[in-house]
Amino acid sequence: MNLLEHDPWKLETSEEHTKPASSNIFSEPVTEFNELAGTLNTLKLNQSNGNEDSWNVTQHANILATSNEYQDENASKKTDKTNVLDTGDENNEWLEWITKIKKNYNPLSYDLVEIEEIPEREGVLFKHTNYLIKYMNPTSNASSSVIRRYSDFIWLQEILIKKYPFRMIPELPPKKMVAANSNNDVSFMVRRKKSLSRFLNLLTKHPFMKDDVYLNKFLSLEKDINSWKKQVEDEQIPDEFMDKQYSQSFKKIWKKEYAENWNTANNSIDTVIEVWNKIGVIFERQEKKIVQMAHERSILHSMINKLIDNTPNLYPIELDNTILDINNNLSMVNSNVKKTISVYDEECKEFANSIIPTFKKYIEILSSLKNLFERYKIMGGNNILQLYKHVESNMGRLENMKGKPDVSGAEYDRLKNTILYDKKLILEQTNRLWLIRECIMEEFLIFQKSQFLISSSFKSWIRVNSNFTGMEMNNWEVLMNQLIDLPSP
């Protein structure tokens, strides 16, 4: 399905929206500003009568209409050769633009944030966990250490979503777990700490949010954070598009095929998340099996020692000293068992510190893109088409009023101002639509770098399996050579 019922990213084909190119708002999100500016000039009020363009729309529309994108007269004079050259220039501009966006993001770069759980819990009635956050600012090379609780993370996420609704903002782990088992509770707290760490590290690596004032305050403000949070909550936090004009250069390089990629990605992202989660579960099970094998080998090591201690009681050396040779060989076996325990422990560390975190990080990025698409469905809509129809209708009514003596001047002026206001809304919503489009394109481009997490995850998994399987095999071969003279009947 498309991200909207009437998707402004794709051409509308239904009869309801089959319109001439000049008013096909959803196939070309920016209204025909030449036509818009012309009608506004027709409506330009006589200032000598005390009337003004109170919305300052005429000037805005004229500026847009005279941009390179809408200079039809010049465009009609272009030769085929010039069109070919322009296409090449646009491709070069596109490549330069995407290169600039993508080069500033690397999900595999070193983490800048470390989180430690503070053992002592605070609170009188309801105990809560505090986290020590250590952050190294790459710009200033300054380090900071602050203490935050889980609710502070929730607050930060809400602020960032309000300010950057169309950016990939990571998810947070749940606050509580359902099970009451203490062992599960400890495990849950460890997972939550790691997830909070991924949340902050993804934000500090994000090229458009890493320098955000709220994020940096969260990571560096050592004094009472509650006072600062209250101050921020009292402020009106606009989104990042406030007072911002869309880029003509971006519109120039835009093609609707790019947005079709978003719809394709949106249709597949749930499947990829499901599959990747299942792969992650398999790898986590492998890690647990290795832990279990290490535990069993530890038990085996202890049992062999007991066996060595007690077998001489069954086989007195006065009768036959063969048991001494057997026990000596069992000691070598036990030495090998101890080595395999060390190998398993190291393998578990590799899973915990290298393989699993990379898998989790990719899931976080996938989920953040999915949530971006979900927020677009809720917040990315507009009523440009309805406004355009309203303007056309009122323009017709205004034309019919001309030359009619029974029409009052106040009614005529009211209708003119209504048209001006509607066109102001069209301009504002069109501007916002293009800003959203550019923003999502930026996010989708940096998301492309996440594919290297797939290769990195499997590369790490193969390396760990290869290295430790080889080490274990080598230990067995050495042991086999040592036991070649094991006593036999």
Report helical residue fraction. 55-70%
* Radius of gyration, taken over Cα atoms and rounded to an integer in Å: 34 Å
Contiguous uncertain segments of 5+ residues = 3-82
Shape: elongated
Name given to the CATH architecture of the domain at 113-240: 2-Layer Sandwich
Chain-averaged pLDDT: 81
- What is the CATH level 1 assignment of the domain at 113-240? Alpha Beta
Protein name: Sorting nexin MVP1
Domain PX: 109-225
Region (Disordered): 1-22
Subcellular location: Cytoplasm; Membrane
Give descriptors for this structure.
489 residues; membrane; PX Domain; disordered N terminus; PX_dom_sf; 3 strands; three-stranded antiparallel sheet; single chain; phosphatidylinositol-3-phosphate binding; Sorting nexin MVP1; mainly alpha; transport
In short:
By secondary structure, the chain is mainly alpha-helical. Helices cover 65% and strands 5% of the residues.
Structural description of this entry:
This protein has a domain at 113-240: PX Domain (2-Layer Sandwich). The chain is built from 14 helices and 3 strands. It is elongated and about 135 Å long. With 489 residues, the protein is mainly alpha-helical. Helix 2 (57-65) packs across helix 13, helix 6 (182-205) packs across helix 11 and helix 11 (322-379) packs antiparallel against helix 14.
